[in-house]
Amino acid sequence: MAKDMDPRPARARGAGADARVKASGADDAGLAGALRALELGLEKKALEPVLLDVRGLCTYCNYQLVLSGRSDRQVDAISEAIVVGLKKDGIRALGTEGKRSGQWALLDFGDFVVHVFHHPQREHFDLEGLWVDAPRVEIDVPADARIQADEY
What pLDDT, in 10s, does the model give residues 81-114? Predict the structure, then answer.
């Protein structure tokens, strides 16, 4: 897999156990930010949101939010809305990758990471399968954020 298409933050690629980023404060560090990112993504009509609790499994964040868009432009719009909205809330991205490709964007906020995929790319990378042992955080998903069976 090419480095620029790897859906993990650069600081996590090849990182060992000593690269663990410890949450400062409560065990749920990053949850509020991830939920706010979810809200911002849904405002831009993001699809099939999944919020993974990776605290016991991951060395670089506590939560991973995975979202889909229907097109390259929508992926870009969702990503931009999350970065701008969280910045207004005082939460700045530590880094972003893939944002201009329209196929996938990784938004690294430290305690949580947001992945926004063009839906066919999401199915290809299958992050939910990679993190199959991660508990899913229960979230309310509006009906219009669901992909219809015949859509892809």
Answer: 999 999 999 999 999 997 667 799 999 999 999 9
Q: Does 16 reside within a domain?
A: no
Eight-state DSSP code of residue 139: -
Q: Is 3 domain-assigned?
A: no
How far apart are the C-alpha atoms of 77 and 97, rounded to whole Å? 15
Pairing state of beta strands 104-108 and 95-97? antiparallel
Domain count, the chain: 1
Closest CA to 29 of 50, 58, 8: 58
The per-residue pLDDT for range 6-56, each reduced to its tens digit, is: 444 443 433 332 222 333 334 478 999 999 999 999 999 999 999 999 999
Whether 103 is in a domain gets the answer yes
d(CA 31, CA 14): 25
CATH number of the CATH domain containing 70: 3.30.460.10
pTM over cut 0.85? no
Strand locations in the chain (E): 47-53, 63-69, 95-97, 104-108, 112-118
Q: What angle do CA 73, 125, 100 make, to 5 degrees?
A: 30
